[in-house]
Design a protein that fits this description.
With about 260 residues, the chain is of the alpha/beta class. It is built from 10 helices and 9 strands.
Length: about 260
């Protein structure tokens, strides 16, 4: 029996769920992790039946300091060798920076940033031992843009950090057979916006700017398997990422305000 697994965080909805399906379709065994046990259980059964693979799950909240260790211990104690790590879990805080409590921001940074580092650090030794491993950082197009005013001041900055962390993994470990892929989707139709209290803003985004989570997942997994360092879905998003890198910040903000549903209002 194949004992190699792909671990997917934030696997119960949206891009994470679709990535798990795409990896299972390719014959990978899957370990799911998220906060909702009922959904984890149902998705685990679905993946096993539909794709004839092994699938297990561990309930964990990455906002908790102990969560990465809990996930790692579960995999170790179950003799699951993680050769693919999908750092996907995330959310946004739909408040102004001065309106949030410190611990709210700390939990946010833990889920989107610190847990990504912690899980990568825990699983990379076994990848080094087997001289093979693939790591995905689900980042955002926001990582290239100026930080927003209305959708959480830290979202863009932490995604930029994640991109640079992925770059660091490639620089240090690509020669050892380990690659990191920074996946930077734009506006994707998932539960992310409603769960973060941002559905009204998402509804203002023009339809041509939006992609569905399955399309994003298919491209993301292909980029991961091909060892790409950065993947941005769609020509429009690629153009926006390029423009964000070359245009003055003031122009990018004006352009984004027209397209991004009040991101800078």
């Amino acid at each position: 029996m194949n004992d190699k697994y792909a671990l997917v965080t934030g696997a119960t909805a949206g891009i994470g769920l679709e990535i798990a399906k795409e990896l299972a379709k390719l014959g990978n065994n899957i370990i799911l992790t998220a906060r909702r046990e009922d959904r984890l259980r149902d998705i685990s059964i679905l993946l096993k039946e539909e794709f004839d693979i092994q699938c297990d799950y561990v309930v964990a909240d990455l906002a908790e300091v102990s969560a990465p260790e809990k996930i790692y211990n579960f995999c170790r104690d179950s003799n699951y060798t993680v050769e693919i790590l999908i750092n996907n879990a995330g959310y946004s805080i739909n408040k102004k920076f001065h309106e949030t409590e410190e611990d709210e921001e700390e939990k946010f940074l833990r889920v989107l940033g610190i847990a990504v580092v912690a899980l990568t650090k825990k699983f990379i030794p076994s990848m080094l031992a087997q001289k093979h491993g693939k790591i995905m950082m689900v980042s955002s197009l926001a990582s290239f843009a100026p930080p927003s005013s209305g959708w959480g001041a830290l979202y863009g900055p932490v995604k930029t950090f994640v991109n640079r962390f992925g770059d660091a993994i490639n620089i240090n470990y690509r020669s050892h057979g380990i690659t990191a892929t920074n996946v930077c989707p734009g506006f994707t139709v998932t539960e992310f916006h409603s769960a973060s209290g941002m559905q009204d803003a998402m509804d203002k985004v023009p339809a041509f700017m939006k992609k569905d989570s399955k399309t994003v997942a298919i491209g993301a997994v292909q980029a991961l398997m091909n060892g790409k360092s950065v993947w941005v879905p769609g020509l429009l998003n690629k153009a926006l990422a390029f423009l964000c890198n070359i245009l003055p910040t003031t122009i990018v903000i004006k352009m984004s305000s027209r397209l991004a549903g009040g991101r800078y209002e």
